[in-house]
Write a structure and sequence with these properties.
The structure holds 2 protein chains of 2 kinds. By secondary structure, chain A is of the alpha/beta class. Chain A is built from 5 helices and 5 strands; from the N terminus they run βαβαβαβαβα. In chain B, strand 9 (426-434) and strand 10 form a beta hairpin. In chain B, helix 4 runs parallel beside helix 5 (134-176) and helix 11 crosses helix 12. The chains are: A alpha/beta, B alpha+beta.
Chain lengths: 127, 738
């Protein structure tokens, strides 16, 4: 986690605050985006290692579409945080470019584990 | 049919005609008393005598004449004799013509008329005076023909009245049904509809006999369903399909927004090979379905909200635990556990929801290959309408899917428009499965398509009901997306659920229920207060024909019931749809020798109920019907072995097909079930032989044949049958002593 640039893209301010505090404590550098426009603006402003992407980011519609755009931009690793527990969500998320899919709620351990498994940079091929 | 007596020429002739044939009443007189042959002989004898007399007279005349007059006398004698002979022959011919030829012609004509019309003129008694037995015999034949015709007419009249009564009852039943019913020809012309159909379709004169059903019902869904069922029939899949030749579907009226939940069934011809039409039964489910979908949306929304909040709370607990350090000991951990419990509960809810919530929209079992083929057809049609012909190939595994195929194909069509419109021209439709997940994929070579485009396609309303692709995905609790397959082809993937239905334990196929409509019998309406069963005619009685499989042949040595099955017969009809078939846990090991006969193993009965629980269920199935079995004494022994423990009493009348057959054929013939089945041409499928249900069905068919034959020997009621059975049982007991 140490030294990683992580962008939290989630419209829930309280959730983003807490997640930010936890990740900062673990040594990551945190940026935040409350909607889709802010997400792309932040990505344009400078490199990011990982985006923690909410499944329904305001202004971004379906989180899966954003996932695909981020994959096509090949800029960063993506962890999709979906608030739905259907098995197809995980499958679709991975197919559309997420490196990991976590269903809310998840523990900090699960998130840390997912981030640790991500490649440092670059993208893996779509399944 | 009524018939009138044809007019006759006079009362005396009619009286004469109706008089019993003279040869049968034994009162001929005079000339008529002579036989026809003798009379004809006498005519010809007269001619011979006359000829001899003429020649003799001529001889005398010539002999007694002086020598010089002989030539003149001879000439005169021959001329005179010749004239006399000719006159006599003419007289004989006239009598012959008047008394024999003409009456024969009239008799022949009258018989022929009777034969052709069933109502010929009665043969005139005077016509046959000189014809010996011909006229009375002809009258007897005519009478027999007339009687037979009258019987046939009466039978036809009864059958017509019967059929009219059944039709009126069917009409009454249809009229009082809460469901709408429409029966159509394969060309979708309406043959029958009921009042409720009019009400449900809010009909404004669109629905009418002989008119297209699609004047009143939105056609796409019905057409698709009929196509699916017709294909199922053609490929013989209906025999193993749990729904046979029926499908559940959601219909829409041709006008209006109502949602009608219905079921469609193909009706087949007598040979059960060709569809001669279909029946749609439906009711209004608008509020129910829309309410169900709204409930689904609400529940999903609430679960999402809870998941979001719980995510914040959960991470908050992690953060507080870290910040508070040891101060949070004993608090953070239980809170984290509570979060995990809630998370697990939500996961269970999600899992259950994907099964339960999908129930708001009626779905059914689909053959994956059939769906893939229908999807390929739909894509080809899309290519046609867009002016971009596409080649579509199908690759499919054989398995069952769960869903509403009509709306899924609408979804495929909408997506297909996007794919083909984007330039793809060689498509492959694949249906495959991985565990409980199944996929319907469309693959093609070309540049990748963004899911944003797919998202736009899914928002466009489709078809008659103006639903969107998203609605259809939501109803199926599933999703679809575009990605790249391993081989680099672009892939549209629709995730679906597989369907696993329990299969029959022996054949591995789903038990087939006959398609024939044995599930009604309007004659039951006519049934008076129940007779004492023994006075009930065999042809009208209710029977349960049953068979048991056991661990062995000796209950006294601990052999037990393993399986009991039965089938009902009512009013002479075998109701193949009303069967009982249960395994029984015998509470002991099954000897291998016995398993070899019936195929039932210890594993088969491990989870079965014991006899104490199966027998009451069978007792309820039998109800007040008479019990019938082949070698009933054996089966009754096992049936009654535990009846006290089970708290029931099998005290119904019992008939035995062995004893009934013995009454008809004697004991020297083989009376095994196989022999009787062979005699009555009853086929027992090999896999069904020595299964309780298979043998029950065969015995039931044998019983129906026996009942028909027993009627010919005066055994008409259950009581009669019991009496002759008792005699046969007595005989067999005596024989067994020697």
């Amino acid at each position: 986690m140490e030294g990683r640039h992580i962008l939290i893209a989630d419209g829930e301010a309280a959730f983003a605050d807490i997640l930010s505090a936890l990740l900062t404590a673990d040594g990551a550098t945190i940026a935040r985006a409350g909607d889709a426009a802010a997400l792309f603006a932040r990505l344009a402003a400078g490199p990011v290692d990982i985006v923690l992407l909410d499944g329904r980011l305001p202004g971004g519609g379906d989180g899966f579409i954003l996932c695909e755009k981020l994959r096509d931009a090949a800029c960063c690793g993506v962890v999709l945080m979906t608030p739905r527990g259907r098995p197809t969500d995980r499958e679709k998320g991975l197919a559309l470019g997420a490196d990991a899919v976590l269903t809310k709620p998840f523990s900090m351990d699960a998130l840390t584990d997912a981030i640790r498994r991500l490649p440092q940079r670059g993208r893996k091929a779509a399944p | 049919m009524t018939r009138e007596t044809p007019p006759t020429e006079g009362r005396d002739r009619e009286a004469e005609a109706n008089r019993p044939p003279s040869s049968f009443d034994g009162k001929p007189s005079g000339w008529e008393a002579l036989s026809l042959r003798l009379r004809v002989f006498l005519f010809f004898a007269l001619l011979m005598v006359a000829a001899v007399a003429v020649m003799a007279a001529a001889g005398v005349i010539v002999a007694t004449a002086p020598a010089e007059d002989r030539l003149a006398r001879l000439t005169l004698a021959l001329a005179g004799g010749g004239f006399a002979l000719v006159g006599l022959i003419a007289w004989v011919w006239l009598r012959f013509d008047e008394n024999m030829v003409q009456p024969m012609e009239r008799v022949a004509r009258d018989i022929r008329t009777t034969l052709l019309t069933g109502a010929g003129k009665p043969i005139d008694g005077r016509d046959g005076r000189y014809l010996g037995l011909l006229a009375p015999t002809a009258r007897a034949v005519q009478q027999a023909l007339t009687d037979r015709q009258a019987k046939t007419d009466a039978a036809v009249a009864t059958a017509v009245a019967d059929s009219a009564r059944q039709r009126r009852r069917l009409e009454a039943v249809l009229r009082d049904l809460h469901q709408g019913v429409i029966i159509c020809t394969p060309l979708h012309e309406v043959l029958l509809y009921n009042r409720q159909a009019l009400a449900l379709l809010h009909d404004h004169g669109d629905l009418g006999l002989g008119r297209s059903a699609f004047d009143a019902l939105a056609g796409e869904t019905v057409r698709h369903a009929v196509d699916r069922l017709t294909r199922r029939l053609a490929e013989g899949r209906h025999q193993t399909h749990p729904d046979g030749l029926t499908l559940s579907l959601i219909l829409h009226p041709a006008r209006g927004e109502a949602l009608l939940r219905g079921r469609i069934a193909l009706t087949l011809d007598e040979a059960e090979a060709t569809a001669v039409g279909y029946v749609v039964v439906f009711d209004d489910a608008t509020r129910e379905i829309e309410g169900g979908l709204a409930r689904d949306r609400l529940l999903h929304g609430v679960v999402e909200e809870i998941r979001r909040s719980l995510a914040t709370v959960g991470l908050g607990i992690d953060l507080l635990a870290r910040r508070a350090g040891t101060a949070a000991d004993g608090i953070a951990e239980p809170l984290a556990l509570e979060r995990d419990r809630l998370d697990a509960a939500l996961t269970r809810l999600d899992e259950a929801a994907s099964d339960v919530l999908a129930g708001a929209w009626p779905t059914g079992r689909m053959d994956a290959t059939a769906l893939a083929e229908a999807a390929a057809e739909r894509l080809t049609e899309v290519g046609g309408t867009l002016g971009r012909p596409v080649a579509v190939t199908v690759e499919s595994e054989g398995f069952w899917l769960h869903g509403d195929s009509a709306s899924l194909l609408d979804l495929i069509e909408r997506v297909g428009r996007g794919i083909v419109g984007g330039g793809a021209d060689g498509l492959t439709v694949q249906a495959g499965q991985a565990g409980r997940r199944a996929y319907l994929d469309i693959l093609w070579r070309g540049p990748p398509v963004a899911n944003e485009a797919l998202s736009a396609w899914l928002e466009t309303p489709i078809g008659e009901a103006r639903v969107t692709g998203r609605d259809i995905l939501f109803r199926h609790q599933t999703d679809c997306w575009l990605d790249l397959a391993r081989d680099g082809r672009v892939r549209f993937r629709l995730a679906l659920s597989t369907d696993s239905q329990p299969t029959d334990r022996r054949t591995g196929t789903v038990p087939a229920i006959p398609a024939r409509p044995e599930f009604y019998d309007f004659d039951l309406f006519d049934e008076p207060a129940r007779h004492a069963l023994d006075r009930t005619p065999l042809a009208k009685a209710a029977f349960v024909v049953f068979d048991t499989e056991t661990t062995g042949l000796e209950p006294s040595r601990g052999d037990q019931l393993l399986s009991v099955a039965g089938v009902r017969i009512l009013n002479g009809r075998l109701l193949r749809g009303e069967t009982f078939d249960r395994l029984v846990n015998p509470g002991r090991r099954i000897p291998a020798a016995s398993t070899r006969i019936h195929g039932i193993t210890d594993a088969d009965v491990a989870t079965a109920d014991p006899a104490e629980r199966v027998l009451p269920a069978f007792h309820r199935f039998v109800g007040s019907a008479a019990l019938v079995a082949h070698n009933a004494a054996f089966d009754m022994t096992f049936l009654t072995l535990k009846q006290d423990k089970a708290g029931v009493r099998f005290d119904q009348p019992v008939l035995d097909t062995v004893l009934l057959a013995a009454h008809l054929f004697g004991s020297h013939d083989s009376l095994t079930l196989d022999a009787l089945a062979d005699r009555f041409q009853v086929t027992i499928p090999e896999e069904a032989r020595h299964t309780a249900l298979g043998d029950s069905l065969a015995t039931a068919e044998v019983l129906l044949s026996l009942i028909r034959l027993l009627a010919d020997v005066g055994v008409h009621t259950i009581g009669d049958a019991q009496k002759v059975s008792a005699v046969q049982a007595g005989l067999r007991r005596q024989q067994s002593r020697y």
